[in-house]
Design brief:
It is a single chain. The protein has a single domain (2-129), classed as oxygen-dependent coproporphyrinogen oxidase (3-Layer(aba) Sandwich). 22% of the residues lie in helices and 50% in strands. The chain has two helices and six strands. The chain has helices spanning 2-24, 69-75; strands at residues 30-35, 40-48, 53-66, 81-93, 100-111, 117-129. A hairpin with a 6-residue loop joins β4 and β5.
């Protein structure tokens, strides 16, 4: 399942950023790939000073490693590893009558030391934040 979701968010990031560049017509996304020393990495893409978008980001991550001690205590597990990936999106349009867009979609797996999946889930959501309210 994890490779399907990783493939999906990579394709989704490409599709979203290409569509937003077309909509804006002026600005393009700048990409900053990054590596997490403990395992994994991601691609940060930012658009700014465009005709439509003041600033925005469409970012993906794929990280893995030892589950931090605080999370092991929270989940009641010992010596657990994890894999997490997701897409985050924030768009701030120039027009104050157009709401800001926020979205986060995540996939998470937790493993025991033998590599068996102990738990897994999808999560996330999205919202529009208006600047001007109309009753």
């Amino acid at each position: 399942m994890k490779q399907q979701f990783v493939s999906y968010i990579k394709t989704l990031q490409n599709s979203i950023t290409a569509s937003l560049e077309t909509i804006d017509g002026q600005a393009t996304f700048k990409e900053d790939p990054w590596i997490r020393p403990e395992g994994g990495g991601g691609r940060t893409r930012v658009i700014e000073n465009g005709a439509v978008f003041e600033k925005g980001g469409v970012n993906i991550s794929e990280v893995y490693g030892t589950l931090p001690q605080s999370m092991q205590q929270y989940f009641g597990v010992k010596d657990a590893d994890f894999f997490a990936c997701g897409l985050s999106l924030v768009l701030h349009p120039k027009n104050p009558f157009v709401p800001t867009v926020h979205a986060n979609w995540r996939y998470f797996e937790m493993y025991d030391k033998e590599g068996a999946i102990v738990d897994q889930w999808f999560g996330g959501g999205q919202d529009l934040t208006p600047y001007y309210l109309f009753e």
